Amino acid sequence: MSFLIQMPKLGHTMTEGTVLKWHKRAGDNVREGEAVLTVETDKAEIEIESPAAGVLARVLADEGVVVGVGLPLGEIVREGETASDLTASVVEAPAKTASSNSGAAVSSPQKAASAAGAKRVIASPRAKRIAAERGIDLSSVAGSGPDGMITEDDVRKIGEKKIAEQPTAQMPASTPGFATEGLAPSRREKLTRIQMVGARNVTSSWKEIPHFVQMVRIDMKRALEARQSINAAGSRVSVTDVILSATVLALKENPRINASYSDGERLIYDQINLGIAVDTPDGLVVPVIHDAGALDIKGISARAAELAERARNKRLRPADIENATFTVSNLGAYGIENGTPVIFAPQSALMFVGAIHDEVLAIEGRAEVRPAMQIAIAYDHRGLDGANASRFTTRVKALLEAPDFLGAVANTKTAAPERHREVRIEAVGESLKTEVRYGGLRWPLSAEDASAPDPVSSFLGALGSCLLMSLRVAARARKMQVGRTSVQARSNEKGHVKEIQVELQVETAIDDEQLHRLVEVAERGCHIRALIRDEVAFSLQVARI
Asked: Among this protein's residues, is 381 annotated catalytic?
């Protein structure tokens, strides 16, 4: 018995695919599992492997042909077997059946042969697409092409006739596909198969699913610190990996979000299959991290990197893009801050992730510049109400703002510097701002506004701190009692530093002579004081508190 190679169904919404390339010719020997041809679906280019070892007896669908799900593409025969009498024309009739969404695709020659007896509608792929976009029933269109094939012009004429018959008051102000009729484009760019089917699917989702979107702003300071701590220990996880991990945990705690809506029922899935939108030259593809709930952040990171690499190199396997239950789309790398995403049916929700920017946030009653981002989550309102959705949205926010689940925050708080007296300073974008890091500590400096101290003010702070510490050390060594201490330090406000004035305030009962000797020792012991050049006028005044 021969083996048929059939168009696979790679996702809930897939009804057809395009034969891109045959890697074998009729008569070639093939091994079981060997790539025989590549097909393009709405999500990716997929290599189809031979189901058995033998000879590729016949090719039933040429390159460029659109074939319905489950329909035969080729036939493999083993030694001593002969090919069936299935003809290539059988493919055409079921292909129409699949594209019209009439139900399950034909998956056997016998069923295909019976379908061939039904009324056939032959139309070019472009004619089918335009008809679908304009809601035109192809069975009512008379084809003017070879053998009665319906052409693009046939469909357009029907569309124009329908428009003309509509009352003027009912005409839409702008209808996609018609609004450009009077324009002369400078060029036309044909969408890839992935882009075309993606456009059809998002249009269907947008029409059929009542969307509502929730947006929140997230303080990412601690999440970024946690990621830094994880990477400092030798791992390489991205910000997206941190976001995906938080999302998976939030889905575990809110299983109704990891679901689909179908005919009055909410289909809830135990397994979290996380779709991650990946941009490729041919369009957006959504590979899936299956059973992401069983992975820690390192496992999610490794799997996401592998899938993204496969997607960009067109090496995704059918299993890599099947059965997503929730999708994350991160456009932060493009600088996009927020958006209103469209759900990938039949999933119940999709999360859009924006770019991380410095923002002024209210932290414990004070304004503070922190890295922040926005997320926007679209929900299917048929299966989810606002309260259920809010619990998930706010949980993602809470997890990222307090990422204890990563097991790295505690390390961040107590992280010791790798080397004493070694700091790392990074410029913030193209601004005059920097961020100084010392172990798990970080603080900003700025030379352009008051959002952070400037480098000179930071130096004066270091000078005053050094003097106070040195004073304490000297007092302890001499067993002198010193109470409250403070320093007021200032320099000329603009230009190069020409003068520094310091007032040291001390609460102590020792006499004036002892105090001044103590301050002299403290000044000599202050390393920061020793850095001030002789040409800078320096004065140190002492006052009692």
From this structure: yes
